[in-house]
User: Fold these one by one.
Assistant:
Number 1:
Amino acid sequence: MNKIIRQIGTKFSHIPPLVSTHFLNDQMKLHDFDERFQVIDASWDLPSAARNTYLEHMEKRIPGSRFFCIDECCDKQTSLPHMLPSTSKFQQYMTHLGVSNNHHVIIYDNSPKFGLFSAPRVWWMLRVFGHEAVSVLDGGLPKWISDRFATESGEYNTSTAEENPKFIAKYRPELVRDITFIKENMKSDNGSQIVDARPKGRYQGLDPEPRPDISSGHMPKSLNMPFMDCLKNNREMKSKDELLSTFESNGVDISKDLVASCGSGVSACIVALSAFVCNGKEVPVYDGSWVEWATKEPESIIKS
C-alpha cells in the first residue's frame, strides 16, 4: 500500500505527476479528501471511435469524479480541433467542475485500448494555466476496475457552480508552441527537437490519418517517438529508467529542449508527461500539431 499523504498547513507534501490506483484509493479513505483533492475523468477518443465518453462516465466512474470534455473546453473560434481555450474560459470551466486552486487534481481516462491516453492532455492544460498540483492516474479507470476499487454511476449530487470557489488561472506561454515557432525552429541547426508522438506508419506516410481530409507524413527535422512506446502493455506508463531508454532509442536527447507534437495535441502530452516523470523537465506542446501543419504547410510534408 502507498503511504497516505497528509497535509501540512495549507501545503501538500510531494505528490508525483503519476500516481497509482492504490495511492488514490488510500487518499479517498481520509475524512478531508474532498477538501484536498478533485478527481477528473478526461476520457476522449478520436471521432472515428464513435464513443460517447460522457455517457460512459455517467454509467461508471471513480466515486466523486467529474467529467472534463476536451472538445468543449477549447477555442471554438478556430477550425482546428480542441485548441486551448482562453484563460477566462478555462477558469469558468474548472470552477464549474468544482476545482479550486487548493485542490490537488488527479486525472484519469477510460480508454478501452490504453489505460493512459487523453488524461495527460488535461494534466498539461492545468499546468499551462498555472495549476501545478496535478497528477495522472496510472492505468486509468481500467486499472482501477481491475484492482476492484469502488465505482459509482448516475447523476451527480453536488453543489451548483455558483457555490463553488472560483478557480484562478495564470497562463504560462512557455508551455505552448505555435506554427510560427515551429517554422522558425526549423531554420536553426540547434533548435528544439520536435518529437512527434503519432504511430510510426502515420509519421512515415504509410498509414492514413484518422481524419480523412489530412495527409499523413511528417514535418522536416521532426523525430518520431510513438506515444505507445511510453507505455507497458498499452496500459501503464513505463518506469523512469525504461522511459529514459525509450527517449534514447528514438533518437531524442532529453537533456536538450523538446517540443511535443502529434495529430491534434492529445497524445503529444504523453511525451510531455514522460519527460516530466524522468527529470521534471517542462516540455511545451505544439497545440495545432499535425492537423494544422498538414493543412497549412502541405508542400513541406515528408513521407519516408
Number 2:
Amino acid sequence: MATNVPPALQCRGCGSRDTVRVVDLGAQPASDHFPLASDPSEDPRWPLELWLCTACTLVQLGPVDPGLTEPPRAIESATSRDHARQSVGEIFTERPSLKGAAVYEFASHHGGSWLDELRQHGCRSAAAHEPADLVVDVHALAHEVAVGDAIRVRAQRLATGGLLVLEFHHLLLLYLEGQFDTVRHGHWSYLSLRALQNLTVPHGLVVLSAQVEPVFGGSLRATLAHRDAGLEPDSSVESVLADEGSAGLADADALARFQNGAASSAVALHNYLAALKEDGKSVAGYGAPSKAPVLLGLAGVDDTLLPYTVDASPAKHGRRLPGCLIPIHPVAELRRARPDVVLVLTWDIAHEVIAQLEADGGWGAEYVVPLPRPHALAQ
C-alpha cells in the first residue's frame, strides 16, 4: 500500500497539494557530490523520496534541498553522441522544412547537447528574444525544481508553427525495470507521457508523437506544438499512454511497489558481491556515474565489497563515490589490475564499456550489470 503520510508537498508541476509519498529510499548522499578520496568528513545525506500528484500525475522528488552545487565532471559517451546524431537526423527526415531554422536548446548540465548536430543541418541559434522554430530539451527538464514553470518558459520560446522536442528518462521503464538508482537528488521530476500531457495543456501545447529511445536506460522523445497550429497527434501517443495506464503509473498503490523491488534488487547486489569476496574473486567497478551512490548506498556496498571503481573522466580521479568510501581511479588501473569481475555501474552504456575494454583482446573478465539483479553480459 502507498505510504500513509499527510500531504506535505506542493506539486512541482501543477501546484496542487493533492500529493502523496509513494517511495522512500531513506537518507542518501547527493549523487553529484564527489569528495576527495582523502577527505575524512562524513558525507551529508538527505531524504530521497518520490511523491505522486494525484491531480496531474507527476511523480517527483520529495521536499528536500541538498544545497550542494557540483561542477559537471562526466565526459560525453560515444553512445550519447551517436544518439544526438541519429535523433537530429530523424527530426529532419520527418520535418525537412526545419532545416536552417532558428533553434533554441535548453541544455542539461550533464551534457548531451544536440546543437552541433543541428548546426550540421544549417540551423542557427535563435537570438535572445527571437521565437525559435525548433526548441529542444534533452534531459534538462528533470533538473528544473519547478517543472511546471519550466514548461511554460519552453512554450513561450516556441514560435507559432514551431516544434518543441522534449527527451526525458521515461518513468515507465524506470518503474518496470526497477531502475531505482535513477532516482537521485537534483532530478526533481520523473515524467510519464500522461503527466507531460497534463502539464503542457495549460500552456497551449499538444503532444504530437512519442518515440521510445534506449538511451539512459529508457527515454521518451516527445514532440509538441502549439495547439493553434492545428496539428494532430499520431498513434504513438495513445500507444504509450495505454502502456503507462496498464503499468499503473498514476496509481499510488502500484507505484509504492517500486520500493519493494528496489529493496530486493539492493539485497541481491550486496549478496552477489559478498559471495565474490567469499570465493576469493577480485572485483572492481567501471564508472562513477551520479546513479552509483544511490545504487551502492541502498545495497550497503562499501570499499570492503567493491575496493574501487574507475572512470574515464580525469575530473573524478582522486575522488570517491559519496557515502560508500569507494575511490575513483583512472581506467588504466583496471587494465593493470585485471580483476576477475567488472561491475559496470554505467550500465546504460554497458556494451560501449565492454567494447572499449575488449578492444585489445581483454583479459577474460566477466562483465556484470547490477539491475534488476546482478547478471553477466555476453561479450
Number 3:
Amino acid sequence: MTYLPVPFVGDGLSAVSSSLQAGPYGILSLTAVVWSVVLPFSVYKKFYAFSVGYGFSVFAVGLALLTVFPSDAKSGILLAKACVFYGARLGSYLLLRERVRKRESPIKNGSISSRVIFSLSVSLFYALLTAPVLYALRKPLVSSISTGGAYLAWLGAILEAIADGQKFVVKQANKDVGDTFVGPTSLAYRISRHPNYLGELLFWTGIFVGGAPSFGKNVAPWVCSGLGLVGIFSIMIPSTTRLEKAQKEKYGGQEKYENWKKQVSGSLLPFVK
C-alpha cells in the first residue's frame, strides 16, 4: 500500500489558502473547505448534508477565511465572524436535536459513492452562499452598505438562534401532549410565525448585501453569489408554505393556535400574510 507523503497535505492546504486570497479558483477552494466537512457527515447519514453538515460547513468557511485574511478588512471580518457564530450555533443545535429526536433518516442513504457525489454538489451550493464573504475580504471597502449587510447578517443569526432555542425548550417540556398546540408563541414568535426561517433569510441576505459593494463590475461574484441567494430563497419560501399547511392540518381549530395566528399575521415576514 502506498501512502501519500505528509507534505502533500501541507501543499494542498497551502494551495487552498492561496486560491482563497486571489485568483480564479476562489469558489473551488471554498467548495473544498465545505466538502471537507460535509463529506464525512454525508457518508455517515446522507440527510446530515442538509442539517449538521450545513451548519458546521458554514462555520468552517468563516474560520478558514478569518485565518487566511488580515483583520483590517472590517466589514469582511464581521461577515466571516457572523458565519463562525451562525455555523457553530446551528450545527451544534441540529446535532443536539437529532440526538434528542433519535429519528430515522428521512431520506435513503444510498451507496457510499452516491453520497460522495451528492455531498460535492451540496458543498458547491454552500460555497456559493458564502462567496460574498470571500469577495468582501479580497477587496475590502469602507461602505455603509457592506457594514449594514454585516449587521443584518448578525441580526438574522441571532433571531434564528433565539427562535430555535425557544422552540427546542417548549417542545422538550411538552413531549407528551400529542397533537395539542403548545407554541412557542412569545418573543421571536411574536415577530413571525416562523422566525427561525426569517432569521435564515435575513442572515443570507445580509451576507450578500455585505459582500456586494466589493463585487464591482466583475460578473463572476454577482453570478456566483446571486445563485446562492436565489437558491436559499427558493428553498426557504416553499418550506414555509409546507410547514404552514402542516400546522393548519394538525392544529387548525385549536383555540391557542387560532388566537396566535390572529395576533401574528405574518407566516414569514412580519405583517405580510
Number 4:
Amino acid sequence: MKDADISRRWLAAMRRGDFESAWQQTDRIEIPRRRAQRSADFRRQPHHLVWNGKPLRGKDVLIKCDHGLGDSIQFLRYCPLVKQLARSVHVEVQPALLDLVDGMEGIDHLHNAWSTRAEPWRGIEVECMELAYVFRHALRTLPNTVPYLPAERLLKLRPPLGIEWPKQPKVGLVWASSDWNRERSLSPGDFAPLKVVRDVAFFSFQQGRPASEMESFSFPVIPISSLTKNIADAAVGLLSMDLLITVDCMMAHLAGALARPAWVLLKHEADWRWMEQRDDSPWYPTLRLFRQPRDGDWKTPVSQIASLLKELGI
C-alpha cells in the first residue's frame, strides 16, 4: 500500500475519532521504516517519524517540537506521562514558547529548538506529535486534564499588561490564522452579527498583518495586540478574559491548555484534530466548536455565537 493511501486512511480514522485504526495505519509505515533504517542507505523521508520504536522506560528522552506552535502546545500535555516512564525528560521548543513552557510539570530540562546541540543526543528522541501514537491512546483515554501549562507561575513572573479592565464581561477576538491556510481566517466584516451584543467589552489578540484591520469592525474592539506579542503575555491576557472567540490557530490551543473558555470557529472541512460533527473537543474540555455548514459560510457560526452571547449574558 502506498504511503499516500495510508495517509488518507489515517486522516479518515482520526476525523472519526477512531484512533486505534489510525495507529494501525501509522504502523504500516513506521514498523517497516524502523527495520529499513538499520541499513546504511536509509534516508529519512518527510512522512517518517522521529521515534525509533524503543520503549521510553528508564531512558533519557528528548521531546522535539518540529511543527507549529499550536501543535507543540497541544502535545506537550504528554510531558508528565513521559516523565512517569523516563529517567529524564528534555524538551526542545520553539523560542517563542520558552517563556510559556518554563516550569511545566514533567520537564527536567528545557531547550531552545533553534540552538545547535553541543553533542549528539544519545537517548530516545520523539517528536511531540508522535506521543499519542507512542502511548497508543484512544479517544476515551486521551490525557485531557487542564490546565497543564503553568498558569499560576505565569501570573507570578509576568508583569501585568497595564490595562484597566472594564467591569463588563471581557471577550477576546482572533479572526485570522497564518497565511499558509487562509481558509481558516475570517475578515472583521464576518463578525458583523456580533454588533447586536451589548454590555460586552471586546479585545483584539490578533497578531501579524491582520491586526491592522481593526478599523473595519462594525463595533468597538479594544486593541491589545501590541501588549500580547509574546505568547506568555498573551497567556496572561487570556487569564483575564471571560471568553475567547478565535479561529483555528495557536490561540485556540493556548486557551485550551490554560483551561480558559474559548469558542473556536472552524472551516467546513476542519483539521483532523477537531474531528467531525462535534461541538466539543476531547483534547480541551473548555473549548466549544462552531463549524461552517458549507464552504465559505462564516455567517452561520458567527450568528450562532452572537445569539449565545446575548442568551448567556457573557
